[in-house]
Amino acid sequence: MTSLFLIGNIASGKSTAARFFARRGARCIDLDRFAKDLYVPGSDIVNELVQEFGVEILDAFGGVDAHQLAARAFESPSSTQRLNDIVHPVLKNRLAQVLMPVPCASMAMGSRLTVVEASVPEAVHDLFPLVDEVLAICAPYELRRQRAIARGMDPDDFARRASRQPSDAAIAAMATSIIDNSYRDVHEFEDALDDWLLHRGLSGSLGCGEVAHG
Hints:
Elements: E1 2-7, H1 14-23, E2 27-30, H2 31-36, H3 44-53, H4 66-73, H5 77-99, H6 102-109, E3 113-118, E4 133-138, H7 141-150, H8 155-163, H9 168-174, E5 177-180, H10 186-198, E6 210-212
Parallel strand pairs: 1-3, 1-4, 2-3, 2-6, 4-5
């Protein structure tokens, strides 16, 4: 069984790659969704977030409103760091528990590939040894900006988020392999992903597939 971290900056095509792998039958773990599953009403992590960012981040049921939290957490680099300091230790502990038995879990589900999509790879860098590969999806900044705006993101919001992410060189340095997604046609990108799988003996169906959360 093969396991990997899938990394890349905003609008690089990382999530497109994750969906492609899922369609092929890979077991996929989206760390953003995985983190949201920690936001159980009344939990210690929710209480810490309220103390840091205010009661306004709560929804009507006492859980965390992701949009309200993001609005406050991305106001400044320091607020983003405070969010990471609260969430990432708990997230990493839960993820390590999921990744450790990957071979057995994958065999039970009939999947030959487990993919962990990490939008903040530097926060889980110390978990990279638990997987076989770290695949980076890269694309030029201007192309990523155009993609983000085309799907409805405010240009200033994109610039703000992009400025807090690692440089393209830093992303590449974390990876064991890189796919350059400068393609304008998604089918060309999927062909590149197919080639990547083929060179690792993972052509054809990868199994039954599953999107795993917390």
